[in-house]
């Protein structure tokens, strides 16, 4: 709604200089001659946009008083002398003002509509309606002359407004019709009927005779009063009243709908995030299920390998015992088929070979572990020493954080590797050191692979930038400006526009504004590049082809989805005869193109060239060469980043060439650093990691070291047996047979238990491979497909951080997150259903 706030009258009849608050004013009351109709007529002038005498309020046109007209209001006519000369308050040359201040609660802003009247000594009136996109200015349309405040004439007002208001934030109107059209839009596109009713509502005298009132002021008829028009007018008032009520109801309903929709949208977004959290929990739980099953599968396979080795070992031991048993039985039977002494000798040799094999295996294990530790320690130490003082932030935060983590891990791996080597003593060795170091091996390889992947992505991006920069540098050195930095759409639109025009007109051209002008003071290049950033890429075409080019450009902008370039209307600019102030920054631009000259004067002609901020502030609109200034009653800071690349100039400047060279050198340096880092980090990423099976074999080989003492004791026993056999004591032989049978029985029992366990593990593996793992993998694939349905950008920016916060910062388990998401989802669904209903 538009609300009338204030009325400003200067030299309007009795009112010499007043500003009155008329907000929420319902009616005017007071004795005759106090100025009620004078105020009403002043409002008519601005609201209806006309000064015709027949529109002025007839309440003042009683008998004995002269009729009102514009000059009588301006001069302040109070009466007529006997010689028919008028009595006036103001003579000679003066200026009058009527202005109203209106508040727009939809856009939350206040604007001013008014009229300026310059009156000369011959009663000639120079009238100008005007619009200001602000409340009444601070000077209230007055200026100081010899210590006195007098109204500004139109010339002073025009100069002041053009200096202190941006283009399109003020307007002067040449005709009443032009102003009336603008005022109608400013008042909210009111119907024409409103203005006719307004005119009728204020154009009557005090009602002394109802018949005269109807015939003279409502029906415009002398005889045969027809009340139909009056009825229609009253009906129109009623219709307007009902329409206003309906509109208010609609506005309130729309506001409620808007609030409900905002709430609905917010909760739908919340529901989507909760759906993502639930889907993510499903994915993580299924992933954990797959990992657990894979771990169970690995453990089962490892256990089967151990069981197989144990069964083979037991079989070998049982074969050896059976051979011994046969030998002892042969001794008892006095059989010539067996040579017990020879058998015992062979057994002794076998035991000696087992001891030798264990010792050789141990030596191999120690050498392999030392090689792992030495390789990892030396490469990690070399990488750390080379990059410990390196600034990785030049690769970006994502890469630098992981890079610094890798350096820290390299330092630890180097230290722990040296520690492992020094602790390796064959007679007393703690295998937990090897297990811990294997974990570090996996960590550093995984982290190095991650960093390598991130660096490869960065290397690709930098490679692309290097190619672009190299192309820019080549173009600049050939005298071409780097318009590619604006994107392919800009160049495409420019080329297509030029091709389309030339296809119809052989002499058509499309010039870029920055190519038509030069800066004549190098000190001001940065400021001018920045202040013209929004316009310096605009196009100039032949004035006669402007409308055609405008239609083509609109279509091209839609095709390319690019709306950051405009077409300058050279013809209208030149017809406007814009003259830049002599002290403006427009004078810092030289050009041979008259259209570019006019455009420059239009853009910069009211911005004063200043040396100090105080000077800029006093000017009301001023700029300094350091890109700071004052404009619109506020400080003004230009973005120097918009002036980093110099485009202004009919030729490529040396500064632009130097800048392109520096850009290329900087990117090339980053490219070289990345290539070097990738080369060095590949040695870490390609390191071989000790496998779980390898670790288990090393453990078993080291554990077998404890059997050397058992084997040596067994050799001593065999030697005793050999001596016993030689002596021929059969009772001892029988005892030995009994002892062997007990051992065979024990070995068979152990073997049976291992065979049972192997059968159980085989069945478990079959179930894992055929049922559990395929089902879990299908579930995780389904969960992954569900996650892929969510918008990737929204996931990265909102959903993923929210989930990680629940998981990491609040230390919630997946089950707790699921329960929390479910509770929130129930609440959110309830609100959504309520809003839908």
Uncertain residue segments: 62-66
Please tell me the CATH architecture of the domain at 2-226 by its name: 3-Layer(aba) Sandwich
Mean pLDDT over the residues: 83
Discrete helix count: 22
Task: Please tally the β strands and state the result.
Answer: 18
**CATH class category of the domain at 2-226:** Alpha Beta
**Biggest sheet: strand arrangement:** 2-1-5-6-7-10
Describe the sheet with the most strands: 6 strands, antiparallel
CATH topology of the domain at 2-226: N-terminal domain of mukB
Structure report:
By secondary structure, this protein is of the alpha+beta class. Helices cover 62% and strands 11% of the residues. The strands form six sheets. The protein has a six-stranded antiparallel beta sheet, with helices on both faces. A four-stranded mixed beta sheet has the order 15-16-17-18, with helices on one face. It has a two-stranded antiparallel ribbon with strand order 3-4. A hairpin with a 2-residue loop joins strand 8 and strand 9. Helix 8 packs antiparallel against helix 9. It is elongated, with a radius of gyration of 49 Å. The two termini are 31 Å apart.
